[in-house]
Design a protein that fits this description.
By secondary structure, the chain is of the alpha+beta class. The chain is built from three helices and four strands, in the order αβαβαββ.
Length: 116
């Protein structure tokens, strides 16, 4: 795997440290993170698309396993189920985490207030 310096990584993934919402998972267990993300995805009843920054503890030489892989896998599964439009890792300078785009949900015809 190639090693990128922070500026190269920022050029690849962009500067996506800001979003409409933030989910802070720093300091939580993998099980707590999984539950929090599921609640975020289940509670997604917005008609319009939105963005979320998911913050996790960044890897350090002594951190051991981080939430990066479990959260990334969960987001990938959610993208396959069309609950997530896209996601990218945050640049190193912004701490650990992901920038997530949620698709929103289209209005159903029976939800409209229009009468015939």
């Amino acid at each position: 795997m190639p090693i990128f310096d922070p500026e190269q990584l920022r050029d690849l993934v962009g500067d996506r440290a800001a979003a409409d919402h933030e989910l802070d998972l720093r300091g939580v267990s993998a099980a707590e993170a999984r539950s929090a993300i599921e609640r975020m995805l289940d509670g997604q009843d917005l008609a319009e698309a939105t963005t979320v920054v998911i913050r996790i503890d960044p890897a350090t030489p002594t951190s051991g396993e981080t939430l990066f892989l479990p959260v990334g896998r969960q987001l990938l599964d959610a993208r396959r189920r069309q609950l997530v439009r896209s996601f990218t890792p945050l640049p190193e300078g912004d701490g650990g985490g992901f920038h997530v785009e949620l698709p929103g949900r289209p209005e159903h015809p029976h939800d409209s207030d229009e009468t015939e």
